């Protein structure tokens, strides 16, 4: 006997239909009460008044009595059925709305869970791809600049203060007071200063920056770069967040030789649309920013053009990775130097 017991129904929550009791609804009870009252009233009326004694009007009176008794009762039950139908429609509409809300909440929660789960993985994959590209580009730059090994224990000077070559590069020479020696900076210190110290504890970076600032030719570029990087940071633009496309050293040498336009378009490797849009808008609206940007671009052009002949391909690749070079790529593209 216990095996024949019916299994309890599965609870589907908001997706299940409401189970109504097998008894009469309140609407049915009201309809029955009204029907009984009307039928009792008609019977009492017939008992008191009767159908009359005329033979010709007898069937007509019976028909009138039946219609008087049946039509109100039919109208009562039609109204009861209409009320029940309206109630069922309201219940179905409420249940459907609840189902749609539940499905929407499930979709939103699944999307949030997917974003939370996949976000770190995607970012990690992107970081791995970027690091792989950097390693490959560094390896290519190293192969391009491979030369026969020569002992060079001392840092290479960026530019020898040979006054005999001053006439060959008149744009680089700055007036030096008589009796004051011209200070030069090593290539390694110049590259480190172009990137600025990484942290407040970067003693080597600050030492290289001090040595670079001692060279007045380099100090102009370093201070211009510091000013423009500070202005860019006010708009939330940081060079560490930008990953430019690498340009071959030959393109940098063309720029140093004075070429402009499409031949050096590879230098405009900054593709971040928000940074370009913010920089372009501020270049148009802020005269201080515009003057600082033009001063920085001129200083970079003058300094890099003056030392390009002394740089190896590996030196140029290292300079291109500095914060100063990235600012030049960004502002140069905004200013249309590479168009």
Secondary structure elements and pairings:
Elements: H1 26-49, H2 58-144, H3 187-195, H4 203-213, H5 216-233, H6 249-256, H7 273-285, H8 287-307, H9 313-320, H10 323-335
What would the principal axes of the Cα set say about the shape? rod-shaped
Report the sheet-strand fraction. under 5%
The secondary-structure class comes to mainly alpha
Percent helix, as a range, is 55-70%
User: Nearest-angstrom radius of gyration?
Assistant: 45 Å
Distance between the termini: 91 Å
Largest sheet: none
From N to C, what is the helix and strand string? Answer: HHHHHHHHHH
Number of domains: 2
Walk me through what this model shows.
- Mean pLDDT is 76; it is low at 140-155 and 159-182.
- This protein folds into two domains: 10-125, no CATH class; 183-335, no CATH class.
- 63% of the residues lie in helices and 0% in strands.
- It is built from ten helices and no strands.
- By secondary structure, it is mainly α.
- Helix 3 crosses helix 4 (203-213) and helix 8 crosses helix 10 (323-335).
Provide a concise account of the structure shown.
With 339 residues, the protein is mostly helical. It has helices at 26-49, 58-144, 187-195, 203-213, 216-233, 249-256, 273-285, 287-307, 313-320, 323-335. It folds into 2 domains: 10-125, no CATH class; 183-335, no CATH class.
């Amino acid at each position: 006997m216990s095996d024949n017991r019916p299994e309890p129904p599965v609870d589907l929550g908001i997706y299940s239909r409401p189970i109504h009791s097998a008894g009469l609804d309140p609407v049915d009870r009201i309809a029955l009460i009204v029907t009984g009252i009307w039928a009792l009233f008609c019977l009492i009326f017939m008992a008191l008044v009767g159908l009359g004694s005329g033979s010709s009007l007898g069937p007509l009176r019976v028909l009138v009595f039946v219609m008087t008794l049946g039509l109100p009762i039919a109208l009562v039950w039609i109204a009861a059925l209409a009320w029940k139908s309206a109630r069922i429609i309201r219940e179905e509409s409420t249940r459907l709305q609840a189902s749609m809300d539940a499905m929407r909440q499930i979709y939103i929660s699944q999307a949030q869970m997917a974003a939370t789960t996949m976000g770190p993985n995607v970012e990690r994959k992107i970081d791995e791809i970027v690091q792989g590209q950097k390693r490959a580009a560094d390896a290519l730059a190293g192969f391009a600049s491979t030369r026969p090994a020569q002992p060079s224990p001392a840092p290479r000077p960026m530019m020898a203060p040979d006054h005999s070559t001053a006439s060959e590069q008149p744009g680089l020479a700055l007036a030096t007071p008589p009796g004051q020696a011209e200070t030069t900076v090593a290539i390694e210190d110049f590259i480190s200063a172009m990137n600025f110290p990484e942290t407040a504890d970067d003693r080597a970076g600050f030492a290289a920056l001090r040595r670079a600032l001692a060279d007045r030719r380099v100090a102009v570029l370093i201070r211009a770069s510091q000013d423009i990087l500070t202005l860019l940071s006010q708009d939330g633009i940081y060079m560490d967040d930008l990953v430019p496309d690498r340009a071959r050293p030959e393109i940098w040498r063309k720029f140093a030789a004075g070429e402009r336009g499409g031949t050096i378009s590879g230098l405009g490797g900054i593709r971040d649309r928000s940074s370009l849009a913010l920089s372009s808008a501020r270049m148009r609206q802020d005269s201080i920013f515009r003057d600082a940007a033009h001063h920085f671009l001129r200083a970079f052009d003058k300094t890099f053009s003056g030392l390009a002949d002394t740089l190896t391909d590996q030196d140029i690749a290292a300079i291109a990775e500095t914060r100063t070079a990235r600012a030049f790529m960004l502002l140069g593209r905004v200013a249309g130097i590479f168009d």
